[in-house]
Amino acid sequence: MSASLVRATVWAVSNRKLQPTWAALTLTPSAVNKIKQLLKDKPEHVGVKVGVRARGCNGLSYTLEYTKTKGDSDEVIQDGVRVFIEKKAQLTLLGKEMDYVEEKLSSELVFNNPNIKGTCGCGESFNI
Question: Which positions fall inside the Core domain (predicted)?
């Protein structure tokens, strides 16, 4: 068996700015507090999982469910709570914000899209 010689050159890079990247999903403080409150009664669950399902006139609807384990393909956001994102939902959630909104007749977790270009009649957002 012969040994081969491999050479590598390392260059020092100076004055290089880091490129900011989008978080897959950000949570508002009210969303973090609500998820903490929901998980307080479920000690066997490690967090919540966000996914998408085919629905509505734009074709997608978000789902949220409790999860007991972290899957291999999930992306984890750690902001005091653990939120897992299904693999097929990662691109649709990129750059979005999860918020908890409480009104007189309803309370819900909503997804705000800062990149929105328009909405349809049902209120679900879509990009053009």
Answer: 25-124
Q: Across-strand partners of 83?
A: 48, 77
* Burial of residue 104, with CB atoms counted within 10 A of its CB: 0-12 exposed, 13-18 middle, 19 or more buried: exposed
Which DSSP category does 55 fall into? -
DSSP bridge pairs for 75: 85
List Cβ neighbours of 56 (8 Å cut-off, separation of 6 or more). Answer: 120, 122, 124
Query: The dihedral of CA 32, 71, 74, 63: what is its sign?
Result: negative
pLDDT tens per residue, range 52-81: 888 766 677 888 899 998 877 677 777 778
| Token pair listed for 43 | 């000690």
Span between the terminal Cα atoms of the chain, in Å: 59
Q: Is the pTM of this model over 0.85?
A: no
Locate 57 and state its tokens.
Answer: 């006139």
